[in-house]
Every structure is written in C-alpha cells, then in structure tokens.
Amino acid sequence: MSKIKRNFIGEKDLSRKAASFRLAMQVVKSGNEETIQKSAQSIRMLANFAKEEYGLKNISRLDSLQMADFAHRLLEKRENGEISAGHTTNIISSLNTVFTHYYRDDLKISAKEYGLNRGHRFNNIDKSVSADIHNKFSDFLTKSYINHGDARYEALRLQVELQRGIGLRFKESALFSGKELQRNGNLNIRKGTKGGQLRRVQSTEKQRELVREVKDFRKESNLKTSLIPDGMSFKEWRHFAYNTVKEFNKEIGLKYNFHGERHHYAQSRYKELTGYEPPVKSNGETFIDKEKDYQIRLIISEELGHHRVDITNFYIGGDNEC
Fold first, then answer.
1. How far is the C-alpha of 29 from the C-alpha of 36, rounded, in Å?
2. Residue 147: how many other CB atoms lie within 10 Å
C-alpha cells in the first residue's frame, strides 16, 4: 500500500507557541500532554533556527545539510553544558517523529551519527577532525582564496587554525584579534566566551606564532577588530563559514565540522600532558592513575572554558569518577 502524501506542516511560522502546539497535537498519537509540550518546544527550537540562520519561515524548506548544521549546533550546546544529554535526545526524537509523520526521512537526524546518544557509553566516540581532513579543508580554503581573491577564505583558514591550535570555540575564534596575547605569554580570551567570562591560557611558542600570523593578516587586510570583515555581522560571517563547509563537504564527499577541531585540541593536550593517547583513541582504556587523569582533565576543561570534567569527557573519552 502506497503512503498517502500529507501536506507538510500547514503552519508557515512554527516559532509561534500556538502553531507549534497545534502541530505537536497532530503528530503525538498518544495524546499525552507532557509529550505534546516537549514536542512543541522542539519544533519551536528548529523553527527559530531555520528563521534566524537561513531566513526560512517554514521548516519544510530545510534540507539535509541544514539539518546537519542543526545537529552540530545541538552537539555544541550539549558539550558546552547548555543542554543536557537527555534533553538533546528528546529534541531529536520529537523532531524525527514529526518527519516520520510527514514522510520526510531526508530530514531525520541520527543521534548515533552525530554522537548525540544518551549515556556514558557514548563518551568514547571520537569526533575530532583528523590531520588529513583538516589539511584538505585548509587547502580548499587556500585555493578558494587564490582563485577568488576573497580574503574571507584566508580569514576562515586562520580561524580554523585557532580552533585546532588553541581550542577556541567558533565564535571565540571568529572574534579573535591577536590582542589577547599578553606580554607575560598569557592568552586572555573573553570575546565570544560563554557569558563573556574571561579565561586565561598560558601560550606555547607555536600558539604565539599563530597569533602573530593572525595579526599580520589583519594588518594586511585592514581588518579593524577581528577576523570578521568590517561591516559584516557575526551572523553573516557564520553563514559564510558554514556555507563554505557545505561546499567543501559536497565537493570532497566528507563530513567536516568546525567543532571537531576543538576535539582535536583536547585530545592532543591529553596526550601531551600524559604521554598517552586519550581513551577515545585507545578503546576507552586509561593508562594513568585516576587521580592524575582527573587533574589533567580539569586542566583541559579550564583551557576549553568548560569548568566541568563531565563535559570534557565528550572530547577525550572515558568516564573518570574520581
């Protein structure tokens, strides 16, 4: 028996409470009021994302690449401690129910694929960007810069290096200027941090070299405040950056994402401080005693701006309960 095609959504603007609630009532077959409320909240979250990030008033116009962007945004929120693992999986489950109802399997999110599953056993999923993929993306940006003469591609390349080499979040690296480096060697990171909270990182020579490269590029390109071109908002810059990643992934057939660079940083720091690969790369095994392991996780957590070891576990694996 062939499926009956349903008119997807009906409501154009699902960011409104009444509209999202009406849709949730249609989709949640059990009629459970709590489930309907959770479903409506998830629908509104996706609708707001579609509107703010892509200017779409109807989530039916989203495509699979944009849903991948949404999944990565959820992952960042979870790993930054903004939403819990349980909340994340509930959001995905609710939205997948909506897409099942309207026969839009192309928009479904696989929690396993994006490392968004619930539970400690999923801490040991390696979500870092490998050296090979990182280099391919860097080369792609360099070639785009040369071919188009567009300095934004070089700015994005440097931003990616800041994420990989210093462990900065996407927004922190975009707003980076080089003035963060102090005479005593500290990097004072405040712009783009969660809640504008200052964090200090003692820099290495390699990091200072990268900062100098950023400052030189900004001077050459006459960028006054950061790596974002003057007159361009952060939102516009993020659109450019994410669209560039989509072009790269489509052309190369890969699944590069910015947040994976921070995962690489955390894993590299763990190996640097312990002499061993992190559990996420050693089948969940830890080769140092629990107390030392815990203290090193605390150091990495502070450098990433998390202040919580349980979030850092998503980056380096393991489940230290010390």
1. 9
2. 9
Q: Say how many CA atoms lie within 13 Å of 189 toward its Cβ.
A: 28
One-letter amino acid for residue 282 of the chain? S
Question: How is residue 311 written in tokens?
Answer: 């979030």
Distance CA 19, CA 26 (A): 11
Report, as an integer, the average pLDDT of 270-293: 92
Mean pLDDT, rounded, for 284-312: 89
- Distance CA(151)–CA(155), nearest Å, equals 6
Which residues are 201's β-sheet partners?
187
Give the span between the Cα atoms of 254 and 65, in whole angstroms.
12
CB 316 within 8 A of CB 278: yes
Neighbours of 315 (CB within 10 A): 29
Phi and psi angles of residue 269, each rounded to the nearest 5 degrees, phi first: -65, -40
Torsion of CA 309, 166, 110, 16, to 10 degrees: 90
Residue 188, H or E segment: strand 186-189
Q: Measured between alpha carbons, how far is 43 from 47 in angstroms, rounded to an integer?
A: 6
As a whole number of Å, the CA-based R_g of the chain is 21
CA 135, 140, 145, 151 torsion-angle sign: negative
- The H or E element that residue 153 is part of is helix 151-166
- pLDDT at residue 36 tops 60: yes
pTM, two decimal places: 0.81
Digit-coded pLDDT (tens) for 62-121: 888 788 889 888 887 887 778 887 889 899 999 999 999 888 999 999 887 776 776 555
Nearest to 312 by CA among 277, 283, 269: 269
Entry field: residues in the chain: 322
Q: In this structure, are residues 176 and 168 in contact, taking their beta carbons and an 8 Å threshold? A: yes
Give the three-state DSSP class for 285: coil
Residue with tokens 């980076």: 176
